[in-house]
Amino acid sequence: MMIAPLRYIYILSFSLWTIKCCFASSVDPTTTTTINGKIQLPDSLPKVEGKDSSLPSVVITLNHGEFSTYSTVADGEFSFQNVPPGVHVLDVHSPEYIFSQVKLQILPESIDEPKCIEYAYPGGTKHVITEIKPITLTAHGRYQYFEPKPTISVFALLKNPMVLMMIVGAGLMVAMPYMMEGLDDDQKDQMKKQMEAQQDPSKMISSLFGTGDAEKSTKTNKKLKDKGARKKRE
Fold this sequence. Notes:
Layout: H1 3-26, E1 33-40, E2 59-62, E3 67-70, E4 77-83, E5 86-93, E6 97-98, E7 101-107, E8 110-119, E9 126-129, E10 135-138, E11 141-142, H2 154-158, H3 161-181, H4 185-199, H5 201-209, H6 211-233
Parallel strand pairs: 1-10
Antiparallel strand pairs: 1-4, 2-3, 2-5, 5-7, 6-11, 7-8, 8-9
């Protein structure tokens, strides 16, 4: 009872396989093309100490993985074979360098001359690639996964207010003797009194609010009153 259904399944599978083989043999091989390309590094890219300046082999895909290949280590060349007509997206999956995304439009009537549009980043400004044999892609830069270490700079120290106060204080100390030479004796005495008053906080506060002059005037008035009272008694 179970032999008949299995026989039908085998016959159906064989028929489908035969149809598939016939369809594959009937496909015109001229409807597909080969896409050749090359990736390279710019001469202006700074070199990193301890790293090889050559471009390593990276994965390159069409249509987000429908076709995939690797670039050669020697010259960065790559190739996609049996690519059908249509619009294809080419991506370079490099973990170290930044490459543009390229959209390819392959038409049946000009299958060996695809139209290539380069995008520096998805949604960015487009740029038409004229050199398509091979399609040459140059890296824009290097990925920065870590923040660079801050370097010691004189300008960074000058931004510190404490450093600025120290510089101003040192400048005043150096310039003070030269400033004192141009003063006369009265001005020197007045400056000395001001410096002495600054050493005593109470005198400095009284001079600011004018209480020191009032106290002196009251003391002189008391002295005059005492002298007048003594003269009357005599």
